[in-house]
Amino acid sequence: MKNLLFSAVFLISGTLLAQDNPKEVKQETEVTTVKTNHGDKTSAKSVKVVTKETSDIKLDKNNHDRVKSDTKVEKEVYVDNDDNTGYQFSTKETYYISDGGSYIFSPHNQGFGINHNQDNATSVESAKSWVSSNDEYYIVEGEAHSGIGRFNANGDFMVEYYNKDTQKVEVKIYKKN
User: Fold this and answer.
1) Would you call 51 exposed, middle or buried from its count of C-beta atoms within 10 A (0-12, 13-18, 19+)?
2) Where exactly are the structural domains of the chain?
3) Distance between terminal CA atoms of the chain?
């Protein structure tokens, strides 16, 4: 009886866990090493960039073809600029889309910067954020708007700010890419 009960619990819990949305994860690692000759000594400095793309796998209900879904891109940069054998974590960037533009969220010591990605080669800082006393909210200061921001359940970043032109509180949403 004990084995039967254990088997039933195992099958039910396995069925519940199998109901999660399947995700596709692509990860690419690129390492660049630069060697410098100092006359009597040669030093090597390495930069490792790990790019990870995550997206939900969604199927069309009618014909079961795959449907395009949002993709979240995270880029982690590691630097090895000393003589030890390991890399030191440098930064992590996450990409978002808002109003048809692409934005890069780059962390710093007290929050993150929001950079407008004008093309694949250049980006311009459009706002900075700092963690507030309530860890769920960020104080955002930018050229176009300043206000209070937070991440919603979907991973989108929402900034509430006062628009002087319309004299209303508005919300700008940076959708997770």
Assistant:
1) middle
2) 22-176
3) 50
